[in-house]
Design a protein that fits this description.
Helix content is 68%, strand content 4%. Residues 399-409 have low confidence and may be disordered. It is built from 27 helices and 6 strands. It has helices at residues 2-24, 29-40, 51-71, 75-80, 83-106, 117-126, 130-139, 146-168, 177-200, 202-209, 213-233, 238-249, 255-261, 263-279, 286-313, 317-327, 333-344, 350-372, 374-387, 398-406, 420-432, 447-455, 468-473, 496-506, 521-528, 536-552, 556-568; strands at 413-416, 440-444, 459-462, 481-484, 511-515, 532-534. The protein is mainly α. The chain folds into 2 domains: 2-382, Na+/H+ antiporter like fold (Up-down Bundle); 398-568, NAD(P)-binding Rossmann-like Domain (Rossmann fold, 3-Layer(aba) Sandwich). It is globular.
Length: 575
């Protein structure tokens, strides 16, 4: 027991120390934890030698990590997932597994006869890293963009797929229809038990202890390990049970409160898990490095093929098809979970798992840089893809736009970029001066915006507003009023100051209306050539002050009724 406490102490100290270095060098923390485990583990310095300690630390971390993953799975979002996300995720998962199994068998790995290395690697390569992707998209403020939503939707469905695989995994040695059905029945019994308890037993209990943070946290842990033990009794696994416990808990009213209170424990146990995985990684030989590189290359290529293809076939445009493929081009931390269960069941060799772990590290680093530079990569790749004959949504409109621009038939008002403010503006114009819509042209590269506006009969040009050629072909040179309403935080490849300069160079006489995120940007945008700059925080503040006045005058209900009526009358593209 004393050795275990000492080993956990070493894990945390080295994870923290190497994590600090990773933070300063802008590397993923997961990479730091793996390195820390390798340094102190049996294949590094040997400070942690006990197989029992390594196994216990890894299992504890794995149980709690899966519990937290379950807590963050939003079943409502899965149910509401659109056709595009469902089809893209289905093709990506099935296609990735089929291609993976065929490829890894072709290079000599086993599939059957007691060895399932090819199957486990296929599944591992079909899953993407939630930790890496969400962190980068959050920092880039792209979670709420169309490619961001597609990426997150596919990630959630990948987690569901992993749950199903973990249900079948214990029966791979005797994979018969009856055995598989029995596994699913056991999972069904576990899920039903967890859902019933979380629906009828947990809410009143948590209601009583809601104001006792330590009891809420303790209750969440008790729930996690209880369902884990039930799963173990059903001949599944504690890890599977902890995942189901998290998913069941995510459906009841106190889920957000529980998640907030166990976040610190989540970080602690996730750290233990990845340090534990790092301790199992041996010093790589040449064969392991070669296999790791092959796995990494296959993961990237297969993700591009299985993600880009269905999105492109569903006419999402080259950009919205490429970005999710780039975002998803790595191996998941969940893949390490799958591989660990494979080792525990003697389904795969430690050499295979080690190679996959190295591939995970390689892609965690490279994909972070690729995602940060994804806009530049897509701008480079799109012209190349067009040369190979792939058509974008702007196919056939360039000549028409150019013709309009050359003959003075361009719209009087051009809206560059289409987000919520532009959506609200079109709805306002539709209510107050519908005839003005015929004089408006919208330029944007969101395929949903393009299709919705085209279906409504609104003139729309598909294109990247940071590209000068797009501005010229869109008729900016002949417009009288040019509106830039997208904030800098959402613009890709430019900002409002640069856009104003480009627009002013193309059209010296137009009235340019721009927006500013920060007060200090206003003067720079005016200096660039804008005629009027809006600052949305000012109009928001005015609206909030009116609400405060309504409260003081006892007129809040009337104010709300007025707002409800105004909202009911609107028909926006981006609700």
């Amino acid at each position: 027991m004393h050795d275990l406490i000492r080993d956990i102490t070493l894990c945390i100290l080295f994870a923290w120390a190497i994590g600090l270095a990773a933070h300063f060098f802008r590397q993923p923390l997961i990479l730091a934890y793996l390195v820390a485990g390798f340094v102190i583990g049996p294949y590094g310095s040997g400070w942690v030698k006990s197989d029992e300690s390594v196994s216990t630390i890894s299992e504890l971390g794995l149980i709690f990590m899966l519990f937290m993953i379950g807590l963050e799975i939003d079943l409502k979002k899965i149910i509401r997932a659109g056709r595009v996300i469902l089809i893209a995720a289905g093709v990506q998962l099935v296609g990735g597994c089929v291609l993976g199994a065929a490829f890894f068998m072709a290079i000599g790995l086993k599939l059957g006869g007691g060895g399932f290395d090819a199957l486990y690697l296929a599944v591992a390569c079909a899953l993407s890293s939630t930790v890496v992707i969400v962190k980068v998209l959050y920092e880039k403020r792209e979670l709420d963009t169309l490619p961001g939503r597609i990426t997150l939707g596919i990630l959630v469905l990948q987690d569901i797929f992993a749950i199903l695989f973990l249900a079948v995994q214990p029966s791979l040695d005797d994979l018969q229809i009856g055995v598989v059905l029995l596994s699913f029945l056991r999972v069904g019994a576990l899920v039903a038990t967890a859902l019933v308890l979380s629906r009828y037993v947990l809410p009143p209990l948590f209601h009583q202890i809601a104001r006792q943070p330590e009891l809420v946290m303790l209750g969440a842990l008790a729930w996690c390990f209880l369902i884990g033990e039930i799963a173990e009794r059903l001949h599944l696994s504690r890890e599977m049970g902890s995942l189901v416990a998290g998913v069941a808990l995510s459906t009841f009213p106190y889920a957000l409160d529980v998640t907030a209170k166990v976040t610190t424990l989540r970080d602690f146990f996730i750290t233990l898990f990845f340090v534990g995985v790092g301790m199992t990684i041996p010093v790589p030989d040449l064969a392991t490095v070669k296999l790791a590189l092959v796995i990494a290359i296959f993961a990237v290529v297969s993700r591009l093929v299985t993600t880009f293809t269905p999105l492109y076939m569903m006419r999402q445009g080259l950009r919205a098809s490429l970005l999710p493929a780039l975002n998803l081009a790595q191996i998941s931390e969940f893949s390490l979970v799958v591989l660990q269960t494979g080792i525990a069941a003697n389904h795969i060799t430690k050499e295979t798992s080690s190679a996959a772990s190295f591939a995970f590290v390689i892609l965690a680093v490279l994909s972070t840089f690729a995602m940060v530079q994804s806009d530049w990569l897509t701008r480079w790749a799109i012209p190349l893809l067009k040369r190979f004959g792939l058509r974008d949504l702007d196919h056939g409109q360039g000549g028409e736009a150019g013709h309009d621009a050359g003959h003075g038939a361009a719209r009087r008002i051009v809206i560059l970029g289409f987000f919520r403010t532009a959506s609200a503006l079109l709805s306002q114009i539709e209510q107050q001066n519908k005839e003005l819509l015929d004089q408006i042209s919208v330029v944007d590269f969101n395929p949903n915006v393009y299709r919705t506006l085209a279906a409504r009969g609104q003139h729309v040009v598909y294109g990247d507003i940071s590209n000068v050629d797009t501005l010229v072909h869109a008729g900016v040179g002949n417009a009288e009023i040019i509106i830039l309403s997208v904030p800098d935080s959402l613009l890709k490849g430019a900002n409002n100051e640069k856009l104003v300069r480009h627009v002013r160079s193309i059209n010296p006489t137009a009235k340019i209306i721009s927006t500013a995120d920060l007060l200090r940007d206003v003067e720079d945008i005016y200096a660039a050539g804008a005629d009027y700059v809006t600052v949305t925080r000012i109009s928001d503040a005015h609206a909030l002050y009116e609400v405060i006045e309504a409260v003081d005058q006892g007129l809040l209900e009337a104010k709300r009724a007025e707002m409800d009526m105004r909202l009911a009358e609107r028909r926006e593209v981006l609700p």
